[in-house]
Amino acid sequence: MTSPLPPTPSPLPQARQRRRSPLPVVLGVVALVGLTGFIAFGNLGKSLEYFVTPTEYAQQQATLEGRPLRIGGLVRNATYDPQKLKLAFTVTDGGASYPVTYTGAVTDLFRENQGVVVRGTFQGGTFHASELIVKHSEEYNVPKTQADMDQLLRRSE
Fold first, then answer.
1. Distance CA 71, CA 52 (A)
2. Residue 131 DSSP SS3
């Protein structure tokens, strides 16, 4: 008689896999998002530069005093000394007015009743501007005749 074959060994049970906790990954992602948010928005308040009208500044004067900002309105009572490059004027929006001082070259577009935006800081009751942005007309008219061209050239001198 033939000897029976040895019984086939039963397959080994599958090893239990160790289940990893998702907590370290979740904490890492939260920390990364928090750090990114802090870097992006943490210094945002320091670098903001507000644009206000004189009336808005009068209403928020306590919070805006000494901070860099832009103020916009119409030019009134402008005086300019081209030798010293000193400009003094009043910016107004019809509700409030503030004196502005600026040192530097002034464009030909700057004049009375012209829209202006100035960048700088308030110190006391005076706005000390470091930059002057003058609004200009959006219309451009090409001179149609030689007389119009001559008149334009005379005005620019």
1. 5
2. strand
Taking a C-beta distance cutoff of 8 angstroms, is the pair 77, 100 a contact?
no
CB 98 within 8 A of CB 71: yes
Token reading at 5:
């074959």
CA distance 103 to 81: 10
Side-chain-side CA neighbours of 137 within 13 Å: the count stands at 7
pLDDT digits (tens, 9 = 90+) for 82-124: 888 898 999 988 888 889 998 888 877 778 888 888 888 888 7
Residue 68 CA, chain-centre distance (Å), reads 11
pTM: 0.56
pLDDT digits (tens, 9 = 90+) for 66-91: 788 888 888 888 888 888 889 899 99
In Å, how far are 120, 138, 139, 154 from 145, measured between CA atoms? 43, 22, 18, 15
What 3-state class would DSSP assign to 76? Answer: strand
Residue carrying structure tokens 């928020």: 60
Neighbours of 71 (CB within 10 A): 24
Cross-strand bridge partners of residue 127: 100, 122
